[in-house]
Every structure is written in structure tokens, then in C-alpha cells.
Amino acid sequence: MLSHLAAMGLPPEMVVALPLAELESLSGDDEGGKLVRRYIERRAVVGPVHPDAFAFVDADGARLKAEKLSTYVSGLRRVGVNAEFNSALCRGLLSVRFDLETPFVPKSKTPLNAPESQHVP
After folding, report:
1. Model confidence pLDDT, tens digit, residues 81-110
2. Helix (H, G, I), strand (E, B) or coil at 44
3. What pLDDT, in 10s, does the model give residues 14-50?
4. 51, 113, 118, 121: which has the fewest C-beta neighbours closer than 10 Å?
5. Cβ(64)–Cβ(70) under 8 Å?
6. For residue 121, is pLDDT > 50?
7. Which residues, including other chains, have CB under 8 Å from residue 1's CB and lie 6 or more apart?
8. What is this structure's pTM?
9. Closest to 2 in 3D by CA, of 36, 42, 34, 46
10. How far apart are CA 40 and CA 53, in angstroms?
11. Residue 28 has what pLDDT?
């Protein structure tokens, strides 16, 4: 959501001051509308959801600071990458342990007598 607002050209000072009511009106295109609805559904995790509440707060419910917004977004990206890595690792371990196929860790469909392919980096 924050990246979408930055791509729309909103300065960090405006982003951190947005109340939830204004965020809903800024959605713009279809993609933006979906992002806003999804964000508001999850926003209740960190604080009350009412029209006058700040749209973007930290994990403790405190308002974000404009000068630290890029650092905050970088931290969110790191958390996302870490979660993706951990889930891929878990899927792989479960697949091997229970002899399962998952969409992300498929078993080889190559017959045993098929010639090996050459790996080209």
C-alpha cells in the first residue's frame, strides 16, 4: 500500500498524516481500490479502525514519522522476504518428510532412463 501511494506521487509527509477516511478516497484505479480494501481489513491488528485514525501506524499503534518512512518500508520488505524464505523452507522440508508434492517443490517427472540434461548457467 505504501509503495502504491509513493508511486502515485504522494510525499511521505502526506502519507503519514492520512486518516483512514482519506485513504479510501485516494485509491484511484482498480488496483489501488483492492489494496485499500485489503489494507483496511488488516489494519485492525495494530489499532482501532475509525475514519479519523491514522491510516499508517507502526506495530505499537504509533503514527509513522515522515523522515523515517523509507527505513520503515525497507524493514517491511525484509520481513516479507524472510517470511517467504521460511515458508519455502518449511514447504520443502514437509514435502520430503511426508513424500508430498507441493506447487513450489515439485518432484522430478523425468523417467529414470531419460538422458540427463546439460545445465547451462
Report:
1. 999 999 999 988 888 888 776 555 445 544
2. coil
3. 999 999 989 888 766 788 889 988 888 888 888 778 8
4. 121
5. no
6. no
7. 35, 36, 38, 39, 56
8. 0.62
9. 36
10. 11
11. 66
How far apart, in whole angstroms, are the C-alpha atoms of residue 14 and residue 67? 12
Judge contact between 2 and 32, C-beta under 8 A. no
Q: How does DSSP classify residue 53?
A: S
Q: How many whole angstroms separate alpha carbon 66 and alpha carbon 92?
A: 40
Cα–Cα distance between 111 and 10 in angstroms, integer?
55
Q: Above 60 in pLDDT, residue 57? A: yes
CA neighbor of 47 nearest in space, from 22, 69, 20: 20
**Distance between CA 42 and CA 37 in Å, rounded?**
9
Q: Are 5 and 15 in contact (CB under 8 A)?
A: yes
Grid cell locating 108: 522430478
For the chain, what are the domain ranges? 1-64, 66-105
Residues in the chain: 121
Kindly state the cell numbers that stand for 30: 482498480
Report the alpha-carbon distance of residue 120 to residue 118 in Å, rounded.
Answer: 6
Selection from 20, 15, 17 nearest residue 50 by Cα: 20
